[in-house]
From TrEMBL:
It comes from Aquibacillus albus. In the C-terminal section; belongs to the NnrD/CARKD family. PROSITE patterns: YJEF_C_2, YJEF_C_3, YJEF_N. The gene is nnrD. Transmembrane segments: none annotated. Catalyzes the epimerization of the S- and R-forms of NAD(P)HX, a damaged form of NAD(P)H that is a result of enzymatic or heat-dependent hydration. This is a prerequisite for the S-specific NAD(P)H-hydrate dehydratase to allow the repair of both epimers of NAD(P)HX. Bifunctional enzyme that catalyzes the epimerization of the S- and R-forms of NAD(P)HX and the dehydration of the S-form of NAD(P)HX at the expense of ADP, which is converted to AMP. This allows the repair of both epimers of NAD(P)HX, a damaged form of NAD(P)H that is a result of enzymatic or heat-dependent hydration. Homotetramer. Residues 225-504 form the YjeF C-terminal domain. HAMAP family: NADHX_dehydratase, NADHX_epimerase. This is Bifunctional NAD(P)H-hydrate repair enzyme. (6S)-NADPHX binds at residues 57-61, 130-136, 159, 326, 377, 444. AMP binds at residues 414-418, 443.
Length: 505
């Protein structure tokens, strides 16, 4: 499933019309018909449906929906929120069809009658604005949208909740708080941004007949779906041995933070890694063993419970390495991080304190011949880039793309919608997971899962996207009957991995 910006969607439209030869009026007909079909299960025969229509093609979709619902004997009222002369082109054509079929249009371009119409309605179909909204809402639309939000109606938005921009990095006034959004052809970026996603309510994609093959030329952003997990997650071969599933090294831990690396080691083993070695300070090894008897250890030189700088580690025997969890932020651990990044001839996952250390040495990443995988949350991304957290949350796709391309890394920008970006800028969004994961230790568990995935026989980006999916899905399964978002702990997520792997094996 592709994710688009407004311009990318217009480009798809252009391709469909100019190259495909399909008429815009047919696309609008398809949009309105498909949405109506998907909407009907949510409607009761006695629903009093109010369709709010704006000036653009989103409003045009509203007229098609109006005609189609009237034709099926639903009780429909269309309220046009702009003067007649503003309804043009394909929307005007479909307005006329709606009228020809016996539909009535009420015009309220001042927003004076909206309250009265809302009072009579049980369902609002929001076709005020689509992806064409620009700048601050002009009067009276702010007031109209607020009135819709305050009304006691079920709110069904067409393509996008009106008022919400399609793109990232765009400020907005207010938007319809939809119960349900029928997204045309491809979800827009704002469905995956934490400040706008909540306006969509539940959403589903409706198809209107755009040439699917063209999406790949128009956008390099996709949702990582459960279906793809089914296709790509390697099945364990009956005749495999521990070597088949990779040997991983985890470097980190300190006297003050022995738990992080223990969780990484355990989650990695629980995700199928053949062998896991932990390079850490001697004194924390017994506590890690108590959680994870299957790991082997490389005691590293340490001072005051923290790993010291130069270590004689043979990186060549590993299929992948993860560094940083609970490691501490001394100059010594910084030196070790730099050394490992320079010398390791296999994929390296850099997390937590490892990310802290490389923030000032990002150029090192460009020199690596093997993949570098960075797993920052927005705070860590802010340190890596010098960009404020607020801006990262507001335009994560663009910032992640630029960073991955510049430093030639695979970036996993963590959040409610984790974005995996490859060094060419291709992106996949993970949608599993819940707020129960917003706790210390979650990242350590994710790093362990990723380490294990990277060592399995699958493409690197698939391994990373699958790792994110599995981590979130374990948490989703756990809050269904065993835990809640409140009490869920990172260690529970490790226990929950079994439920996910069983589904996909
Ligand atoms: N292939 C497709 O995706 C199809 C999508 N369809 C629908 O068309 C809309 C996009 O239509 P467009 O006309 O470009 O934009 P809008 O409907 O969002 O309307 C813009 C409209 O609103 C006015 N406006 C803009 N900004 C403001 C503001 N800040 N305050 C007040 N008014 C504003 C402006 O005057 C414009 O006239 C898409 O979302 C789908 O729903 C097609 O129907 C089928 C193909
Ligand atoms: K809308």
């Amino acid at each position: 499933m592709h994710i688009v910006t407004a311009n990318e969607m217009y480009e798809m439209d252009r391709v469909a019309m100019e190259k495909g030869g399909i008429d815009g009026r047919i696309l609008m007909e398809n949009a309105g018909r498909s949405i109506t079909e998907s909407m009907i299960p949510l409607l009761a025969k006695n629903s009093r449906i109010l369709i709010l229509v704006g000036a653009g093609n989103n409003g045009g979709d509203g007229f098609v929906i109006g005609r189609t619902l009237c034709n099926q004997r639903f009780h429909v009222t269309v309220l046009q929120l702009v003067p007649d002369e503003k309804i043009r082109g394909d929307a005007a054509y479909h307005k006329q069809l709606y009228i020809n079929f016996g539909g009535k249009v009420h015009v309220d371009d001042q927003g004076k009658e909206i309250a009265a119409f809302l009072k009579e309605a049980t369902v609002v179909i929001d076709a005020i604005f689509g992806i064409g909204i620009k700048g601050k809402l002009r009067p009276p639309f702010h007031q109209i949208i607020e009135a819709v939000n305050q009304s006691n109606t079920v709110k069904l938005s067409v393509d996008i909740p009106s008022g919400i921009p399609a793109d990232e990095g765009v400020s907005f006034d207010t938007g319809v708080w939809a119960d349900y959004t029928f997204v045309i052809e491809a979800p827009k970026m704002s469905a995956f941004l934490q400040h706008t996603a909540k306006y969509y309510g539940k959403w589903e994609v409706v198809k209107i007949g755009l040439p699917l093959a063209s999406f790949d030329q128009v956008t390099a952003r996709k949702v990582w779906t459960e279906e793809q997990v089914h296709f790509t997650l390697p099945k364990r071969d009956d005749y495999s041995h521990k070597g088949t599933h990779g040997k991983g090294l985890i470097v980190g831990g300190s006297r003050e933070m022995p738990g992080s690396i223990a969780m990484t080691a355990l989650s990695s083993l629980r995700s199928g890694a053949g062998l896991v070695s932990v390079g850490t300070v001697n004194e924390v090894i017994p506590s890690i063993v108590s959680h994870c008897a299957e790991a082997t250890f490389i005691p590293l030189d340490s001072e005051k419970g923290v790993i010291t700088g130069s270590q004689c580690l043979d990186y060549s025997v590993y299929n992948a390495i993860a560094i940083g969890m609970g490691m501490g932020r001394s100059e010594d651990t910084a030196e070790l991080t730099r050394q490992l990044i320079k010398e390791a001839n296999c994929p390296v996952i850099v997390d937590a304190d490892g990310l802290y250390h490389i923030s000032d040495d990002l150029e090192l990443l460009k020199q690596r011949e093997f993949p570098s995988i960075l797993t920052p949350h927005p705070g860590e991304m802010s340190r890596l880039t010098g960009i404020p957290v607020k801006e990262i949350i507001s335009k994560p796709f663009r910032i992640a793309e630029e960073f991955s391309k510049t430093y030639q890394v695979h970036l996993i920008l963590k959040g409610p919608f984790t974005i995996v970006t490859d060094p060419k800028g291709k992106q996949w969004v993970n949608t599993s997971g819940n707020a129960g994961l917003a706790k210390g230790g979650s990242g350590d568990v994710l790093s362990g899962i990723l380490l294990s995935m990277v060592m399995q026989p699958q493409l690197l980006v698939e391994a990373l996207a699958n790792g994110c999916y599995i981590h979130g899905k374990a948490a989703d399964n756990l809050i269904v009957n065993k835990h809640s978002k409140q009490d869920l702990l990172a260690t529970d997520v490790i226990q929950g991995l079994a439920s996910v792997f069983r589904t996909f094996s």
